[in-house]
Design goal:
12 helices, disordered C terminus
Length: 306
Amino acid sequence: MLAVLAVLAAAVLFGTTGTSQALGPEGTTPLSIGVMRLVVGGTVLAAIGFTLARRRIRRHPNPLPTRRAIALMAVTGVCLAAYQPLFFLGTARGGVAVGTVIALGSAPVIAGLLEWALTRRLPSATWMVATVLATAGVVVLGVGGAAGGAGGTDPLGLVGSVGAGASFAVFANAQRRLMDAGWDPFTVAGAMGAWSAGVAVLALPFVDVSWVLGPAGLVMTLWLGIATIAVAYTLFTWGLERLTAATAATLTLAEPLTASILGIAVLGERLSGLAVAGLGILATGLVLLAWGSRRPRDPAPYALEG
């Protein structure tokens, strides 16, 4: 149950992203926000992850690095880096509510399909029912938000949001494979932070980040980096050690739930009756999944050769 709570806590932190962006300075772009978020967040995540891993290394030694393991660690960082501009592109072009809904709604489905392809085992019946409920709630929430003027359908925004969902699903499965092969979750989190920060630093000369010099820009960057990357992904990866990638991805649907609540409480947004119904359906799916995840997951080891 602690693993479920850890992933839910991470999702709540993820859910503050849209509100933070809305309260941030003018002159930002999806790419510039994503780059600065990762430069700060990826660096701090690497520091936290490797520090915590060092404390556990004697009790839980990592296996010897292999080419496959190093490649998977690189995949986690690259996918986390790709998620940032894709997510912000989706919210910028399709609206915060609709963009978040599509990104987070697609992630559990893609994660479940990837997990099935890798393990040849179907997800549990509880996961299927809970994911259908939660995804349906997300869709209803998105339709209700769009109907209330929160955003519309934009082809480029749709590509960005689905791409963000796919990026999340891929790095969650890559992390799950590394941990099933014996890698400490904090080592995995630290490697993801280091790789993603490295990608962001390479992109830094090509984006305008002058907005970060102002108070609002600095506060937004620190919150997005430390809270929604470093702390959130440390919690997410620790919880993922005890859950399947598909279950963890579904639990992150608490993000649009959090974003909607913050939109009402902080930004003064109003939800239609349809959107409120979507929140209820989404919450029901998350409660069902959390209840069904009380028992330890069955081991599903992956072979990392090479």
